[in-house]
Amino acid sequence: MIRSLAIQVAIFVIIFNVISWFRATSMLSTETQLSPESSVLTTLMNEKIQLLSNDKETVIYFFAPWCQICHLSIENLEEFYLENENINVIAVALDYVDVKEVRDFANQHELTFPIALGNEAIKHQFSISAYPSYYVIDKENKVVEKSLGYSSKVGMYLRTL
How many domains does the chain fold into? Predict the structure, then answer.
């Protein structure tokens, strides 16, 4: 009984990882170099921000305020951000109705990292097809990791090693 359950769990994990890998193939490839001419976005605090590393490894997290998986994983990202001073986090809101919707999302989860207001051009530039999606970029603005879907705080940490 236990052996059968272990085999089923192993098969599920393998299938889940294959599906996740396949879905992520539509994202930017690792080794993609982001250019300093990347679009400048406005944050909820009405500041300008570029989706670049600024000499620190950076997680760029794309979300939609209506996405239930985003609601579940964003708190992991907040904890990760608070515990890792050496890593930048920038969240980019996409597919939102109005700024109030994004602000309500940020307030509900008490987010402290910058939240940029994205647009269709950014969505296209970063090949975002589902939420949440995120990239890890190194100090030279090269994509070193990418992922799609829910991630735990440990998962985010492991992707930034």
Answer: 1
Question: What is the C-alpha separation between 105 and 83, in angstroms, rounded?
Answer: 21
| pLDDT band (50, 70, 90) for residue 81 | very high
Rounded to the nearest 10 degrees, how much is the dihedral formed by the CA atoms of 100, 102, 105, 106? -100
CATH number of 118's domain: 3.40.30.10
Task: Please give the structure tokens belonging to residue 38.
Answer: 């990347």
- The CA distance from 18 to 153, in Å, is 21
Instruction: For residue 25, give the nearest of 146, 151, 153 by alpha carbon.
Output: 146
- Total-model pTM: 0.81
Bridge partners of 43, per DSSP, are: 116
Residue 33 gets which letter from DSSP? B
Distance CA 127, CA 138 (A): 19
Q: In this structure, what are the phi and psi dihedrals at residue 48, rounded to the nearest 5 degrees?
A: -90, 140
Q: What is the pLDDT of residues 2-52, one digit of tens each?
A: 877 777 777 766 665 565 555 555 566 566 666 666 678 999 999 999 988
What is the residue range of 53's domain? 2-159
Alpha helices in the chain (DSSP H): 2-24, 68-83, 99-108, 120-125, 153-159
